[in-house]
Amino acid sequence: xxxxxxxxxxxxxxxxxxxxxxxxxxxxxxxxxxxxxxxxxxxxxxxxxxxxxxxxxxxxxxxxxxxxxxxxxxxxxxxxxxxxxxxxxxxxxxxxxxxxxxxxxxxxxxxxxxxxxxxxxxxxxxxxxxxxxxxxxxxxxxxxxxxxxxxxxxxxxxxxxxxxxxxxxxxxxxxxxxxxxxxxxxxxxxxxxxxxxxxxxxxxxxxxxxxxxxx
Length: 215
Description:
Helices cover 74% and strands 0% of the residues. The chain is an all-alpha fold. The two termini are 17 Å apart.
């Protein structure tokens, strides 16, 4: 940020190479990856590929066992979408703002600071809306509000304020994460740990796709 770079291609390629190297080092040198630390079933039940297949089968059962609750696939579709969209702020807000709108790092910081305060002080708003309208209507209302805020991306190439206004408006619904966690706990119950593991995989996979796509 101090250098106020305009082209991050070389930097992102360097980060990709470093991360790839760390993965290779972990696979080669970590004790858990060595043969003598592998459990007995590793050799008798298909090794790593067999373990992956069993894990995927467990994830499939998560959908089968919750079929009476409706299309839970929509929950994971939402996770993927949110992970890809949040990547825009978490990683690209400074680089995009400085390169596309030709803003200085100090000015971008000035524009980003209100997002933090809005996010903190507006956390109870989602709960208030759900209490006033009821859970179902409140949920639909918050979803519609977040969708409307994201719609500002259509103006993003032309208006600088549309880029930051997306984050200001989305931060008004900062209590959304708490609402989703409570809903997930009520839906999946004893399967919650398996759901959280699959949710993390969805988010990590979305992040892997989103970062180069935005670049």
